[in-house]
Structures are given as C-alpha cells and as structure tokens.
C-alpha cells in the first residue's frame, strides 16, 4: 500500500489516535520518511493535541469553585425546604383522599402520548439529556430549530421525557427513528409500539 | 510531563462515584461536592468552548452542575458520571447560544462534503514543544485565541475529545452527531489549529502571528 500527501492529511488524525489499521499505519510511516511536509503536519498536530490536552489549558476564573459551592448550597437548602413542604402536602392528601386514590392519581400513572401523530422509538439513549417545552409534544436535541415553545424549556433525560408523554422529534432525533423505521414501517407499527413502553 | 492529564476514570473511581451518588440519593447532599470536585474545571471548559465569554461560561457551568444535582436520581449507573455531566453542560450552553441568538452571528459551518478537502497551509518544521511552555500565560492565551477562532462545530468536538478526553463515541453521544462526523470535524479542527499556531509555535512568539492579522480566510 502506497499513500500520497493528501491521503496522509485525511488520515493524520486517525493515525495519531491509533485508529489507523496496521497496513495504513505502515504506509503512512513509510511516506513520512521521505516527506518533510507531511512530517511537519504530523509533528504539529501531535503538539496541538498535547498542548490543548494539558490540564493547565483548563483554567477557571479565580473563586470559581467557591461561587459554585455557594450556589449549590443555596439550592440544596431550598430543595430541603421544598421537600418538607411537599411532605406536608402529601401527608394531607393521603389523609383526605385515602392512599388508594392517591396511587391512582396522575402523579403516579403514566400519561399517554401528547400527540396522536407522534412516532415513538425505544432507541433513544434513555439517559441522553433532551429539551422539552411545557406546551410541546416532542423532545429535542438542544439547538434543534423545531423546538416548540422557546420560552419554557426544560432539560431532562430522554426516558423521563418519554414517561411524560413526549415523543422524539422527527427531525433532530431522526437517526433513532430511522433505525426503527428500517425494521418496520411507521404505519405498520403495532399498538404495542405506538404506546410508550 | 503533564500532557494529556485528564482525570483518571478507573473502574475503582466509577465504583466510588456510584457509592457517592447512592449517598446523595439517600439524602446526604453534601456528598455531591465530593462527586463534582474532579470535574468542576471540565464543566467550565465545556461551557467556555461554546459560549466564549468567561461570565456566561461560569453561569452556564453553575447551572449545569445544579441540574446534575437536581437530576441525580435519574443518572443511570451504567453511564459515566463525567460524560453525563459534560453533556448537561453542553446542552445548557447550546440553549444559551440559541437564546442569545449567537448562532446568527457566527454562521454554522457545514462540514458536509468537506471531508478530506482541507489542505494544510503551513509546512514550517514544528518540533516538539515542551509542555513547560504552558506555564507562560501568553502561550495559553494564544492557544485559547486560536481555539476561539475556529467554527463552533469544530471547536465543540475538539474540546470534548482533546481537552475533556471523551472517546469518539462519547463525543458523538454528547453532541448528538455520528461518530463519522466527530472524526471529520476533529481532523479539521486539529489541522486548522495547527495552521493557526505553527507561525507562532514554530518559532518564537511574535505579534505578527498570521491569525492575529486575520489572514486566515475561514
């Protein structure tokens, strides 16, 4: 196998990451022995990766950690207060409505899909953080231009979005939907697929 | 040599983190400080890569850490905590960019069809740079300046892969793109940075760096 300069430039990144196979690697090294230009490219890129990979490049502003911890502290004490507040409310609800009724309430049951036209997919990584709008029907990758209500967005894990009845956006989540669609057409999806599972 | 010193994430560390997460879930909230300590700088760096403004990046990093705390019960133990946390920071930063409409100011560069077309412009011999160079503030500033001058789609891949030391797969997942796109953008980012830095790092630092003059057309 013989490679030229352009080939080396295309593969230099994979070569440095150890992702080039043995044959390509040998061919690149053979080329580098006779090409000063490509040697300069490889050496320079190796320096770039090493310099930026150094922790000293990740400087944080003075006092960053202290301010972060202060904000966390505030949030933690708020969440404790909120938890106490909810505990009182929950206790009162149980007292008034009875345990069985509470268990049947919407808090504990899973709602249906927010859109009857939505396509579901079990291929979205469950812990992938996604964006939902309170009034929306679908969940998105951050930055998707099709996000419904830009004013009221929340970032939650995909599985939680699905639990709340959101379906994956057919545009930004296309790759997960395509994988599903390739095995069976959308309109042929069984009832089981069409409900969230 | 301190190059490539990302936080070590051995299985033992992941076990330790799982135990911390369990304790936090059981109500011992203070354990969260210990959980995030090794990653505070990484969260900030991820935010800064997208927002390019110290104050915004700090606020975004704080928000991301708060969200991680609030959603810690939803963290699934088969994932790496660091990757999950960085992903939250990336999502938060992207959302802020959209709100600030920064994407309109910085046009999104298309990398489709550009695979393999980037031709290096600088061929000056660039011998190994001792990592001690990074002790010099002006060197770190030049590196940061070069990084902020490349397009966002390249910058975010480069930061996650080469600064945060995420794998190709983790980078792809965090950004919601394919591994092929990660590789293409990473190659281009590294080539562009090499071209930007070669005039300065190939010789002594000087004021007439080509990127300082805006000579590079991208």
Q: What order do the helices and strands come in, and which of them pair?
A:
The complex is a heterodimer of chains A (197) and B (218).
Chain A: H1 5-16, H2 22-34, H3 36-52, H4 64-97, H5 99-104, E1 129-133, E2 138-139, E3 153-157, H6 158-163, E4 167-168, H7 174-183, H8 191-194
Parallel strand pairs in A: 2-4
Antiparallel strand pairs in A: 1-3
Chain B: H1 11-25, H2 31-36, H3 40-51, H4 54-70, H5 81-100, H6 102-105, H7 137-149, H8 152-163, H9 168-175, H10 179-201
Helix pairs in contact in B: 3-4, 3-5, 3-8, 4-5, 5-9, 8-9, 8-10, 9-10
Describe the protein:
The complex is a heterodimer of chains A (197) and B (218). By secondary structure, chain A is mainly alpha-helical. Chain A has helices at residues 5-16, 22-34, 36-52, 64-97, 99-104, 158-163, 174-183, 191-194; strands at 129-133, 138-139, 153-157, 167-168. In chain A, the strands form two sheets. Chain A has a two-stranded antiparallel ribbon with strand order 1-3. The longest helix of chain A is centred in the middle third of the chain and has 34 residues, at 64-97. Chain A is elongated and about 80 Å long. Mean pLDDT of chain A is 75; it is low at 99-111 and 179-197. Chain B has 218 residues and is an all-alpha fold. Chain B has ten helices and no strands. In chain B, α3 runs parallel beside α5 and α9 (168-175) crosses α10. Residues 1-8 and 204-218 of chain B have low confidence and may be disordered. Chains A and B meet through α1, α3, α4 and β3 of A and α3, α4, α5, α7 and α8 of B.
Please sum up the structure shown.
The complex is a heterodimer of chains A (about 200) and B (about 220). Chain A is mainly alpha-helical.
